[in-house]
């Protein structure tokens, strides 16, 4: 599916201030993996969000009042560490979350975010904690501007961030990466031609055609 | 200024500089499995795209596939049959080499890729699984990707990535007997935290690494991702070349000689500078075991549960308190002696022949404690057959272990093989993730080396394998 463009968005921000929130917690392995890329919002944070009887866990932030419409999520260090499962990003996106703001992210998770129109935004720990401290159920509206690379906190404080140009432009425009790279096929072919001379064993796979 | 090992490999794979730190990187080997691979192939087919270089692409089944004897193309994982069926149906028409359920080369991707010589030094290697960094043990630049990056690589034989910074970890000194590669990596993560290597291309170096046989190097690199690393590698040396020679897909004849000559040029230059350096002294290292819900929650086997309140940072304190509550261990109490009801030897971390031999030396002539469910799943069908030829299967079975087929098995609740340990169980495992609910609902997982798992299975509680000298040694 094509990516939803993301230039500047305003919406509800929720805080889940724990370190090392891994992709097993974002989408546990037993929660309805399907051979598709959409329809995973219900499974988001499954083990934290639902009680064993299937009802909503009232203690979990995304089940509380305005935070049911969370668009931006604040978290501790190393968010999205663990498994490479892209289901985790699809679940965040399908729930309606457009950006996660944390001091650090799992590297694979970061790449998966770029591929799906979700912005992984790095702010230092003090800034993330400061924004989290401003949030209350009646005071949780925030703006994330990817063009200017600025967050406007609920109290109106500006926080600057940086996302590499190429990835940021793709998020802003909602561009498909494969289409863009296929336009460089001449470069890829030229690389392989030169590389075959230098490292022939890479390309001479025994019985190449299966 | 000289270049690091990683920088040499990176430079040899840049197709295009896309600006602001992003590059188009050539992929030498791409391995698919039935979970992320089914999704990426389905998307390729839906958009009528072709696989650009099927000859550089491989596939097998390991995740959803069960490991129970007599397994087939159905699984207890809800919806899992669709992954097995769609992947198997879609991979063939693209001309991708596929090691299916019945192929003697089937196994966990990260175990079979080095075993078959699919992963080689200086190569870029990706798979839709976070533990792809495992094969950095042979000197490949290997990392896990999501389904969309996998789809991008199928269509273009490239991925877009930001150039990672470099980190060298110097493991100084030599390991003492009874201490293994798993203990090295757990101790490292505990020392520098689970995001201590975040975003880095990590090179494991130092005296202790140079002495590690290949299986240990693969274990070390396996958990680079648990340290936040983009990749983990060990620069190739004579141990690497000896391991790879005559593997099925290794180069042969003149190509082999040329490849080795190139691989010898890859080690870091003497004056190369890394962005960061860490150090861990192996000469005093003890066997490690985890207590909590992150691989950074690791202590020496004789150590005690740390007090979460001792963390200075408030978020870290809250996170560790939550882990302590989940683990149900009192701060200050010893980790050794905690009763267990499950023991698992397997996964891409520790399921290779050296792991099985070491565990068998502990298990020989002994019995698993009553009330402990003990399971072993060798990392590949080839490893299983080799172990059986050595009589290792008999030792495991006579001790009371289940002897399984190869796959990801009980590493991950529900999704791998569709099995879980029972609710609230406390288990010890040779795997890589002790996350909440990872091996079953409210299951408390303790990560350790295969010998520690074997010793604990016999004792019925977390135990130090060094107290279990092999029965043969006692004679």
TrEMBL record, chain A:
* Residues annotated as signal peptide: none
Catalytically driven reaction(s): (2R,3S)-3-isopropylmalate = (2S)-2-isopropylmalate
SUPFAM superfamilies linked to this entry? LeuD/IlvD-like
A biological process term (GO) from this entry: L-leucine biosynthetic process
Would you tell me the Gene Ontology cellular component terms? Answer: 3-isopropylmalate dehydratase complex
Q: InterPro entries, per this entry?
A: 3-IsopropMal_deHydase_ssu (IPR004431), Aconitase/3IPM_dehydase_swvl (IPR015928), AconitaseA/IPMdHydase_ssu_swvl (IPR000573), IPMI_Swivel (IPR033940), LeuD (IPR050075)
Molecular function GO labels: 3-isopropylmalate dehydratase activity
Tell me if Cytoplasm is a UniProt keyword of this record: no
Pathway membership: Amino-acid biosynthesis; L-leucine biosynthesis; L-leucine from 3-methyl-2-oxobutanoate: step 2/4
Instruction: Tell me yes or no: is Lyase among this UniProt entry's keywords.
Output: yes
For this UniProt record, the keywords arranged alphabetically read as follows: Amino-acid biosynthesis, Branched-chain amino acid biosynthesis, Leucine biosynthesis, Lyase
Its Enzyme Commission number(s) read 4.2.1.33
Specify the Aconitase A/isopropylmalate dehydratase small subunit swivel domain's residue ranges: 3-124
What role is this protein assigned?
Answer: Catalyzes the isomerization between 2-isopropylmalate and 3-isopropylmalate, via the formation of 2-isopropylmaleate.
Return the similarity comment: Belongs to the LeuD family. LeuD type 1 subfamily.
What NCBIfam families does the record tag this protein with? Answer: leuD, PRK01641.1
Oligomer status and interactors: Heterodimer of LeuC and LeuD.
Q: What is this protein called?
A: 3-isopropylmalate dehydratase small subunit
The record lists the organism as Rhizorhabdus histidinilytica
Gene label: leuD
From TrEMBL, chain B:
> Which pathway does the record list?
Amino-acid biosynthesis; L-leucine biosynthesis; L-leucine from 3-methyl-2-oxobutanoate: step 2/4
Listed InterPro entries:
Acnase/IPM_dHydase_lsu_aba_1/3, Acoase/IPM_deHydtase_lsu_aba, Aconitase_4Fe-4S_BS, Aconitase_4Fe-4S_dom, IPM_dehydratase_rel_enz
The record's SUPFAM superfamilies line, in alphabetical order, gives: Aconitase iron-sulfur domain (SSF53732)
Q: Which UniProt keywords apply?
A: 4Fe-4S, Amino-acid biosynthesis, Branched-chain amino acid biosynthesis, Iron, Iron-sulfur, Leucine biosynthesis, Lyase, Metal-binding
Does the record carry NADP as a key word?
A: no
What's an example Gene Ontology biological process for this entry?
L-leucine biosynthetic process
Chemical reaction(s) catalysed = (2R,3S)-3-isopropylmalate = (2S)-2-isopropylmalate
Q: Kindly list the cofactors needed.
A: [4Fe-4S] cluster
**Could you state a single Gene Ontology molecular function term?**
3-isopropylmalate dehydratase activity
EC identifiers of the protein? 4.2.1.33
Domain Aconitase/3-isopropylmalate dehydratase large subunit alpha/beta/alpha residues, every copy: 7-460
Q: What does this protein do?
A: Catalyzes the isomerization between 2-isopropylmalate and 3-isopropylmalate, via the formation of 2-isopropylmaleate.
How does this protein assemble?
Heterodimer of LeuC and LeuD.
Q: What is this protein called?
A: 3-isopropylmalate dehydratase
* Organism expressing this protein natively: Rhizorhabdus histidinilytica
């Amino acid at each position: 599916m094509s990516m939803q463009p993301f230039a500047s968005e305003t919406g509800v921000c929720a805080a889940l201030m724990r370190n090392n929130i891994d992709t097993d917690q974002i989408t546990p392995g037993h929660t309805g993996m399907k051979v598709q890329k959409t329809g995973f919002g219900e499974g988001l944070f499954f083990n934290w969000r639902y009680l064993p009887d299937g009802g909503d866990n009232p203690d979990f932030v995304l089940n509380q009042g305005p935070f049911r419409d969370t668009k931006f999520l604040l978290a501790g260090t190393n968010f999205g560490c663990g498994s490479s499962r892209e289901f985790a990003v699809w679940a965040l996106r399908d729930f309606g979350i457009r950006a996660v703001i944390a001091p650090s992210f799992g590297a694979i998770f970061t790449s998966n975010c770029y591929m799906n129109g979700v912005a992984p935004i790095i702010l230092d720990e003090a800034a993330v904690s400061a924004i989290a401290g401003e949030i209350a159920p009646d005071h949780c509206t925030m703006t994330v501007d990817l063009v200017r690379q600025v967050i406007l906190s609920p109290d109106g404080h500006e926080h600057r961030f940086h996302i590499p140009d190429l990835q940021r432009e793709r998020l802003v425009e909602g561009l498909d990466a494969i289409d863009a790279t296929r336009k460089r096929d001449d470069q890829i072919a030229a690389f392989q031609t030169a590389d075959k001379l230098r490292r022939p064993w890479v390309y001479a796979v025994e019985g190449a055609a299966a | 200024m000289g270049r690091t090992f990683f920088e040499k490999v990176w430079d040899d794979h840049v197709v295009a500089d896309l600006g602001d730190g992003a590059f188009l990187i050539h992929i030498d080997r791409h391995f698919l499995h039935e979970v992320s691979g089914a999704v990426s192939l389905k998307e390729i087919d839906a958009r009528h795209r072709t696989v650009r270089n099927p000859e550089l692409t491989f596939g097998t089944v390991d995740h959803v596939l069960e490991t129970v004897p007599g397994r087939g193309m159905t699984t207890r994982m809800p919806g899992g049959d669709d992954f097995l069926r769609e992947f198997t149906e879609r991979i063939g028409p693209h001309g991708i080499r596929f090691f299916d359920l019945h192929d003697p080369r089937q196994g966990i991707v990260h175990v079979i890729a080095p075993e078959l010589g699919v992963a080689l030094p200086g190569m870029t290697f990706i798979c839709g699984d976070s533990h792809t960094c495992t094969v950095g043990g042979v000197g490949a630049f290997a990392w896990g990707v999501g389904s969309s990056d996998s789809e991008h690589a199928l269509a273009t034989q490239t991925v877009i990535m930001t150039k990672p910074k470099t980190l060298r970890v110097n493991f100084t000194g030599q390991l003492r007997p009874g201490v293994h590669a798993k203990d090295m990596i757990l101790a490292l993560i505990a020392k520098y935290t689970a995001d201590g290597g975040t975003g880095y291309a990590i090179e494991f170096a130092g005296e202790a690494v140079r002495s590690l046989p290949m299986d240990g190097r693969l274990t070390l690199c396996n958990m680079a991702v648990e340290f936040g690393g983009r990749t983990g590698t060990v620069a190739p040396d004579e141990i690497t070349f000896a391991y790879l020679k005559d593997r099925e897909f290794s180069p042969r004849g003149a190509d082999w000689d040329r490849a080795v000559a190139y691989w010898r040029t890859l080690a870091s230059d003497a004056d190369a500078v890394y962005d960061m350096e860490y150090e861990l002294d192996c000469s005093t290292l003890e066997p490690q075991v985890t207590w909590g819900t992150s691989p950074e929650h690791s202590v020496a086997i004789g150590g005690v549960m740390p007090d979460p309140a001792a963390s200075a940072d408030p978020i870290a304190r809250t996170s560790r308190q939550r882990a302590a509550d989940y683990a149900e261990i009192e701060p200050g109490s010893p980790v050794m002696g905690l009763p267990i009801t499950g023991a698992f030897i397997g996964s891409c971390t520790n399921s290779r022949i050296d792991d099985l031999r070491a565990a068998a030396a502990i298990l020989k002539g002994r019995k698993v404690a009553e009330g402990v469910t003990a399971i072993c799943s060798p990392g590949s069908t080839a490893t299983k057959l080799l172990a059986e030829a050595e009589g290792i299967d008999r030792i495991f079975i006579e001790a009371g272990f289940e002897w399984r087929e190869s796959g990801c098995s009980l590493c991950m609740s529900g999704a791998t093989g569709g099995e879980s340990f029972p609710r609230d169980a406390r288990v010890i495992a040779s795997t890589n993730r002790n996350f909440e609910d990872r091996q079953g609902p409210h299951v408390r997982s303790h990560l350790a080396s295969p010998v520690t798992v074997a010793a604990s299975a016999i004792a019925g509680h977390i135990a130090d394998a060094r107290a279990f000298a092999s029965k043969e040694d006692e004679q």
